[in-house]
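Listing S7. Sequence submitted for prediction.
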Amino acid sequence: MPRTRPARRWQIRHADCLKALPKLPTASIDAVITDPPYGIGINSISWDRPTTLNPVPGRRKKTDHRVAFQAFCAQWTGECLRVLKPGAHLASFASPRTAHLLACGLEEAGFELRDMLMWIHSQGFPQPAAIPRHKGWGPGLRPNYEPILLARKPLQGTLEQNLTQYGTGALHIDACRTCPSQNRCTSHGRTHPRTERASAKGRWPGNIAFFHHQACTSHKCNLDCAIRQLGERHRFYYCAKPNHHERNAGCGHLPRRTTQTFQRGPEEEQKARAHPVANIHPTVKPIELMCWLVRLLTPQDGLVLDPFTGSGSTGAAAVLEGARFHGIEREHDYIPIAKARIKHWGR
């Protein structure tokens, strides 16, 4: 008898998600976890410009960028709503500047907004000061966090009925608890006595995650590190930021190219040329954080969809957590990077 071919655990489709999502079966996806374009024209990259993100057909080409971006968000999230099972969750990274437009797009598509998680880090770079006559003034603050919008497809019946039938609707709390610390929290600022002991299972997961500064070592934190600034309480949210090894793991056979995520002047440009990399994606997310999201939102052996696969961090997390993964990516340059990284972490 011929051998049964093992089920395919992950795949990436090279396509525009607006064209690929309508081809997926209705109510076939357990969770959507994605890092879509933010609509802020990051580093002048064309795929992040709102007016090139396929605005609503029939509107003038010179549509207001906010209208275009919200329409784009409503379009792709609307298709995600259709392919998700009842009660299934969608988690989407966003920019603080355009998260409200994504939120409006989600609600317009029919999602229920459930929460806004916060990824706090120390590696953001401010826009260079460009106000010659006003020394000491600048155009904005340094970005130190990214919101993650958490939305849910409406339930069918009660939460318990939906969870029983589809395995979706609730969050897997026990899979994402933070291990309790041996140290006691200080009582500073608490006006009421402690009334209960910490759970032996670990601390209930919060909606904030902190990250070390890239200059931190295993022995000492950089002065600018969010972990150091928060002190002992960081243990509730700790997760390391991706380093060079994590970004490029599995990509050793790919060509190295020069890339600079943010335009920070001639010195950084020269440094980028001197150190070409295989993973050229500008917004690689930490695999540990993506694993946490997969555990939180996905039932056992569930199918995770990422319509903006990028460098494949969601897919890597899915295979590490034993979930199945379906990725869609429009940009040709990112396809081999994503496949190499997922294959590496899925070994």
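Caption to Listing S7: primary sequence and predicted structure tokens for the chain studied. The first helix runs from residue 17 to 20. The beta strands are 10-14, 29-34, 84-93, 112-120, 145-152, 208-210, 303-306, 324-329.
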